[in-house]
Amino acid sequence: MYAPERQQEILRLARDSGRVDVVSLAEEFQVTAETIRRDLKALDRAGLLRRVHGGAIPAGRLDFEPGLAERESTAADEKDRIAKAALAELPAEGTLILDAGSTVARMAAAIPPESSLTVVTHSLPIAARLADHPGIQLHLVGGRVRHRTHAAVDAWALRAYGEIRADVAVLAANGFSVEHGLTTPDLAEAAVKRAALTAARRVVLLADSSKYAQEHFARFGALDDVDLLITDNGLTPEDAGDLERAGTEVVRA
Amino acid sequence: MYAPERQQEILRLARDSGRVDVVSLAEEFQVTAETIRRDLKALDRAGLLRRVHGGAIPAGRLDFEPGLAERESTAADEKDRIAKAALAELPAEGTLILDAGSTVARMAAAIPPESSLTVVTHSLPIAARLADHPGIQLHLVGGRVRHRTHAAVDAWALRAYGEIRADVAVLAANGFSVEHGLTTPDLAEAAVKRAALTAARRVVLLADSSKYAQEHFARFGALDDVDLLITDNGLTPEDAGDLERAGTEVVRA
DNA sequence: CGTGCCGATGCCCGTTCATGCCTGATTGTG
DNA sequence: CACAATCAGGCATGAACGGGCATCGGCACG
């Protein structure tokens, strides 16, 4: 097995499980720990992994708190299905706004190489993922970067979204319901989401069913601002019916 | 069997099995390893295969950024020393502008955790690296993202730098000399560098000695715009003297 | 039919690369 | 505060590499 293959595999493992450790990798690949360390160092320098004592964690995580691995793995299946279903809703070409969020990030990572899109995002991990994509013209929205979500917020971000007009915005929300609309815990982030929502002709919301009927501190839109909701089949058909009556098309992936 | 036929077949084998190795191919086609290496090199240059030590892997199977990885390995030692020396020039607290560039990125990665800085950057890799640094308030400069350098450029970036004032800017250049000043191959990038330079009270340039006396297409400043140049000892003391007489302090790490 | 050119191939040899091993320093944990 | 795990750097080794040169074989042209 060649070094780059091994590194690629390490990267995959890291992204899948949220972290890797030197000793298990050495055993797994039948090489010494030194070699693994060299691999991790290379991946670290390339910015794909973050080296920590004893192992490494994937770079560009939405947050790196201990709770993350668990949160990531929670509903991972649903998120993947949602991301895949969302891909089908993307135009083959045109302009796209991508909100910050792990499901949106998964979708972004799966955009096929032959696409020809203009993408605007204020999410650092998504931008990092798409910067190499040959078919994508990427525009980064600046601003203060929130540690927790790695998303740009505040004046620069708001102004940037105020100056553009996109075909589709793919948004994420921490909570959604007919009564309380779209909510998220942070005010600054909500303001940016609202600006992104306003800048697009068509709004697609990606949210797994655990977000349904949740409400958080900051509201950034009403449900009927959303043209299409993509969620998983944890949402009951009755709830989906309620949402559709409120004017939002619902896809249960 | 003619060379193009053989290469075609090598490509097919590589795509089928995910990898090929020099020795087996040599045996398979009854030619020497040198010939296979030449074939692989040709396919690599054509972008169809990715060459690795001992063999090759079909292109697209790895998602490394070859350009970035390659630049990382060039003059890695010098760059590390320069980056380390540059750290000593950073204020303990205050506002910092970080330009795009591998040496600057290394410096950024080495900023101690106990620092308390406000950092502004238009470089995506650097931002990704600093986004979860607890002591750093990070501000991202938006704009169109260039594939080659992963840096934001154009109107949004220029305006953002026009609106701020920082204590120190850490810049990179592809070429520097007393006569031709600071140059880089891309016009858009040069404009952003100039804006960053203008926005800072003190300008530190990181450039290894191979950049000395180089000149590239786009000029973004004169040498005396630079307060401090940090380079390696590949720069002769005489050349350093010339630079100092031109008004720039020189550190040879 | 001969001849000279040129690309492809093979061979040689100094250099680089990937890996493993060792040692001393560093770090995290109990 | 001490112990065990982990890390970084230096060194050794065998495989792989790359450039220079010689050879071979086809092809065009006279």
Please characterize this protein's 3D structure.
2 copies of one chain form a homodimer. By secondary structure, chain A is an alpha/beta fold. The first copy, chain A, has 2 domains: 3-59, Arc Repressor Mutant, subunit A, CATH 1.10.10; 74-252, Rossmann fold, CATH 3.40.50. Helix content of chain A is 39%, strand content 26%. Chain A is built from 10 helices and 15 strands. Chain A has helices at 3-17, 22-29, 33-45, 67-73, 76-87, 102-109, 124-130, 155-162, 187-198, 237-245, and strands at residues 20-21, 49-52, 55-58, 93-98, 116-121, 136-140, 143-145, 152-153, 166-172, 175-177, 181-184, 200-206, 218-221, 228-231, 249-252. In chain A, the strands form 4 sheets. A 7-stranded parallel beta sheet of chain A has the order 6-5-4-9-12-14-15, sandwiched between helices. Chain A has a 3-stranded antiparallel beta sheet with strand order 1-3-2. In chain A, strand 2 and strand 3 (55-58) form a beta hairpin. In chain A, helix 1 crosses helix 3, helix 5 (76-87) packs across helix 6 (102-109) and helix 8 runs parallel beside helix 9 (187-198). The radius of gyration of chain A is 19 Å and the shape is globular. The interface between A and B is large, with 39 and 41 residues. Chain B binds a DNA duplex (30 and 30 nucleotides) through helix 3.
